[in-house]
């Protein structure tokens, strides 16, 4: 495996009042794509010196247009994944072999009308929906599936109406 580092990253498992999770369809997928890997939770890079909790709220703002959420939990440890060999040197700006991620559980405090996928000049998602937590592993690209399995398992206690 390459000597490239892992990119520090935060992930947002955003629960609505019904205990469902926000997932967005990646804008770089073909329109109408429903296969696994086309949908994911918000996530993004951690800026140097940035607090992870600050970063996850920033990522929500950039990717879905709102910070109207409260952190209700977080993973006890960082979770790593490596990119498949054919993506190393291409994905993530070509500078990383994968990512090390700290996942947060958040409760969305707003209304669905606050979600704006076009809030940032680099639009990450072109569609979104609320999904059951148990659906997460099936929607993940294969190399991220173990991460989504872990998030689904560890954040089950937050997947309740609230």
UniProtKB/TrEMBL annotation:
> Does the record bear Cytoplasm in its keywords?
no
Q: Domain of life here?
A: Bacteria
Q: Where is the signal peptide?
A: none
Q: Write out the ranges of the annotated region (Disordered).
A: 30-50
- EC primary class: hydrolase
InterPro entries xrefs: Nudix_hydrolase, NUDIX_hydrolase-like_dom_sf, NUDIX_hydrolase_CS, NUDIX_hydrolase_dom, RppH
Q: Which cofactor does it need?
A: Mn(2+); a divalent metal cation; Mg(2+)
- The chain positions of domain Nudix hydrolase read 5-153
Keywords attached to this Swiss-Prot or TrEMBL record, sorted alphabetically, are: Hydrolase
The terms under GO molecular function for this entry are: bis(5'-adenosyl)-pentaphosphatase activity; guanosine-3',5'-bis(diphosphate) 3'-diphosphatase activity
PROSITE patterns recorded = NUDIX, NUDIX_BOX
HAMAP family annotated for this entry?
Nudix_RppH
Q: What does this protein do?
A: Accelerates the degradation of transcripts by removing pyrophosphate from the 5'-end of triphosphorylated RNA, leading to a more labile monophosphorylated state that can stimulate subsequent ribonuclease cleavage.
Q: Which family does it belong to?
A: Belongs to the Nudix hydrolase family. RppH subfamily.
Q: This chain belongs to which protein, by name? A: RNA pyrophosphohydrolase
Source species: Roseomonas indoligenes
Lineage of the organism: Bacteria, Pseudomonadati, Pseudomonadota, Alphaproteobacteria, Acetobacterales
Encoding gene per record: rppH
